[in-house]
Amino acid sequence: MRDVYVIGIGQSIFGKNPQYHPIFLGAQAAKAAIKDAGIDPRILQVAYGSRVMDATQTAQDIMKHVGVANIDMNNVENACASGGTAVHMLWKDIAYGIYDIGIAVGCESMTTCSIAGKLVGVAGGDLNGDLGITMPSLAALVARRMMETRGATIEDIARSSIKNHRNACLNPYAQYKKAITLEDILKAKMIADPLTTLHCCPVTDGGAAVILCTGDIARKYTTKLVKIISSVTLSATFDSTEEDLVDVEIMRSLAAKAYGKAGIGPEDLSLVELHDAFSMEELYSYEGLLLCPKYEGINFLRSGATEIGGKLPVNPSGGLLSLGHPLGASGVRVVAEVTQHLRGEAGARQVQGAKVGMAQMVGGYLTGLGAPSVGVINLLAI
Amino acid sequence: MENVLFRKDLFKETAEGYSLVGNKCPKCGKIAFPKADFCTHCLNENLEEVELSKRGTLYSWTITRVPVGKYPIPHAIGLILLPENVRMVAPLIIGKQDFKVGTEMEMKIATYWTENDKNIIGYKFKAIE
After folding, report:
1. Nearest CA among A328, A334, A275 for reference residue A62
2. A137: Cβ–Cβ under 8 A, 6 or more apart, which residues?
3. How far is residue B126's CA from residue B129's CA, in Å, rounded to a whole number?
4. Which residues of A touch B122 (CB under 8 A)?
5. B13 exposed, middle or buried (CB, 10 Å; 0-12, 13-18, 19+)?
6. Residues in CB range of B13: below 8 A, 6 or more apart
7. Cβ pair A145:B60 closer than 8 A
8. A195 contact residues in B (CB cutoff 8 A)
9. In this structure, what are the phi and psi dihedrals at residue A156, rounded to the nearest 5 degrees?
10. Is the four-CA dihedral A254, A162, A198, A280 of positive or negative sign?
11. Distance from the Cα of residue B99 to its chain's centroid
């Protein structure tokens, strides 16, 4: 297996921009990544596109806008983990010697897609979806259980939203650069008890892209060699009553595989960017991703360990809660974010001395399977 | 108004009204709800239909305050743990008491929504008061 490096990263503006087609946002991100890498786009050998809603020929459409056609192009849908999966597929092609350089690009327009204005649901025809489960209500079920069986207060549930909104004030790409208080969160419109709108990621349009290549190519273009030290996707087990909703098997197995393949442990991480579509997700992911011992997640968050400047900053970008969550783009965006920190180019939100970072996304829900139904982790190091 | 079942495959008509039905695998004992063609645990295809308990405990709950599909809001929904070791999603009936994890719940047939002069009915769980 060959080493794989990130040589280009780019993202579009993230925000409510219904005037832009999602392909335009993807093309903006792809152009930015090509410029960042300093390459002629015609040396790209493969492209993966990721988009969840109303998607067709995402990669082909985006790449024609950056002057690339007639190469191997494929498209990925893996719910909220789509973007991270596109990066994973590209990583595999390069690691196993199929190609030497390629691009993964994700995009989404949540303001104009076919579910615009509605809660993000589950697959059509799925029993639990038909009974009225949506992603916010699923998150609310986990939050309620954390409160009633783990001793979390509503402030604990809200805490990562407060932290991530504060971080976003330092990020020029964030949709919301405004600090919020517990009172703001509690007073916001109730979506699914106990979660209000400010416990949930906003509706956002955006695109993100990364260019991966072999070491030989990377060394021609950069001295900041950011390497993907492991890349893992995993789908959930069948649903089991033995699995507690607040401590899911898929998260632990995914994390263990990612650490194992990289030959590192969670103690080696400098920062984590993870799927915080809902505030409780960051909280329950601390234990799932083995960032702290079992039952210690609430104290870990309360201690400030995951603040910028803390022991292990989590979502220094502001996370999905403040950047927003264009479904197909987010998993690519977190790889770009971690890369910026490892290069020392993250500006005011920079995690000082960052050496190893995790870019994680999870998503999806289906009757009969554990929740979430799919996850991806890309671990990066410099 | 005519009552129409939300999904026929979830129910069985008995002397006491509708019951929920699942499949039991005679080999490994696993029970599936909704019914499945085969056991996901051991892949056995010869499953038996079983009536599920009408009582269970509340595993978690929420009340959705914004519209979801055709359901009127607020739409209370939760997870119910049945004695058969089945954890199922269920719409809930809001009663006098607040919901609480661990509450004993009972299955009722109730209206999900109304459309074209028809009551779309299905299962809901309500706290035993």
Report:
1. A328
2. A119, A192, B62, B64, B68, B77
3. 9
4. 131
5. exposed
6. none
7. yes
8. 62
9. -65, -40
10. positive
11. 17
Q: What is the pTM of this model?
A: 0.96
Structure tokens at B92: 């809930």
Instruction: Centre a 10 Å sphere on the Cβ of residue B116 and count the other Cβ atoms it contains.
Output: 8
* Rounded Cα–Cα distance for residues A339 and A53 (Å): 27
ipTM score assigned to the predicted complex = 0.96
Amino acid at A55: A
Yes or no, beta carbons of A368 and B81 under 8 Å apart: no
The Cα–Cα gap between B108 and A128 comes to 18
H or E element at residue B13: strand B11-14
Query: The CATH number of A127-200+230-381 is which of 3.40.47.10, 3.30.390.50, 3.40.640.10, 3.20.20.70?
Result: 3.40.47.10
- Mean per-residue pLDDT, A125-150: 94
CA–CA min distance B36, chain A (Å) = 10
Which class is A4-114+204-228 in CATH? alpha beta
Q: Determine, for residues B59 and A137 on separate chains, whether the beta-carbon distance falls below 8 Å.
A: no
3-state secondary structure of A27: helix
What Rg value do the Cα atoms of chain B yield, rounded?
A: 16
Domain count of the fold of chain B? 1
- Whose CA is closest to A94, among A221, A35, A6? A6
DSSP letters, A67-79, are T--SSEEEEE-BT
Cα separations (Å) of A252 from A291, A311, A375, A376, A379? 10, 21, 11, 12, 15
Contacts of B87 (CB under 8 A, 6+ apart): A239, A241, B59, B79, B80, B81
The two structure tokens encoding residue B62: 């929420």
Element spanning B127, H or E: strand B118-127
Structure tokens at A205: 């349009």
The whole domain housing B92 covers 2-127
pLDDT band at A118 (very low <50, low <70, confident <90, very high): confident
- How much of chain A exceeds pLDDT 90, in percent? 95
How far apart, in whole angstroms, are the C-alpha atoms of residue A52 and residue A78?
8
Render pLDDT for B24-45 as a digit per residue (tens, 0 to 9).
999 999 999 999 999 999 999 9
